[in-house]
Amino acid sequence: MIMPTTKECILEFENNWVTIWFNRPEKRNSLSKVLIKDINQTLDFINNEQSIRGAIFRGKGNVFCAGADLKWMQSIASEKNGADDLAMEMSMRFGEMFTKINHLSKITISIVEGACMAGAVGIVSATDFLITTSDAKYALTETRIGLTPAQIAPYVLTKVGFKIGKKLMLLGNVFDGDEAFAIGMADCVVKDKNNLESEVLKIIDNVKQCSPNAIAVTKKVLNSNYNINTTRAAKLFSECMIHDEGREGFASFFEKRKPFWNQKD
pLDDT tens-digit profile of 11-24? Predict the structure, then answer.
């Protein structure tokens, strides 16, 4: 089988499953324009290849994904001309990726070790199953840097419910793999990362016993419960990016200081 050519992720094919390895370890596997393109084209390939039973998302360098590439975002927000259009274009790319993951007709699994931050929580929430190490670190950090998790909110709320999801998204606190399992975000938690593979194989074995068409149809039924206006969500996110507080959030992050709204009185 000839796999798609990718630049910032590594693709592996085994047991009729494709593993998508995010491969920007020096940037904590943050989601760049190139990586998002790689993911989207790979998902299209998987969806159209009947022999493939599922997709697995993982990160190289013992990190799952640090969320969006903030340098990319900051460069757009600092544009003097056309920042609105560039921010909207970027935001739509993210929305497209989350939609493709969620609507994939095959089973999807996220395997998390290390950091899983912001938009990466959207990825794991959009997948069907999440297997995590107990010491993995999660956080929806958007509001802490002047952004909104508008595009991933529906997936997070579906995973954990409104009350817990609201707390995670509004406050941006860090939680570990054990808590991710306790609140229903993760389906399995292991203390030793060497046990991740055995848990994945259990799901793969179960999927093998199920009809591919039946899974595809059932996923379509389940996805009909989502009410996502991707354009509206993208607009809300892009507006936050170019807002004064969004620009301050990026600056404070890279300057390793607190933003002005978190300064002492």
Answer: 999 999 999 999 99
Helix (H) or strand (E) holding 239, with range, is helix 230-242
What pairing do the DSSP bridges indicate for beta strands 54-59 and 17-22? parallel
Confidence of residue 224 (pLDDT cuts 50, 70, 90): confident
DSSP string spanning 97-133? HHHHHHH-SSEEEEEE-SEEETHHHHHHHHSSEEEEE
CA distances from 239 to 44, 47, 74, 116, 163 (A): 29, 32, 13, 24, 26
The DSSP letter of residue 217 is H
Q: Delineate the domains of the chain, giving CATH numbers in brackets.
A: 9-223 (3.90.226.10)
Characterise 198 by phi-psi region: left (phi > 0), alpha (psi -120 to 50), beta (else): alpha
What tokens were used for 47?
């969806």
Contacts (Cβ under 8 Å, ≥6 apart) of 123: 57, 65, 97, 98, 101, 110
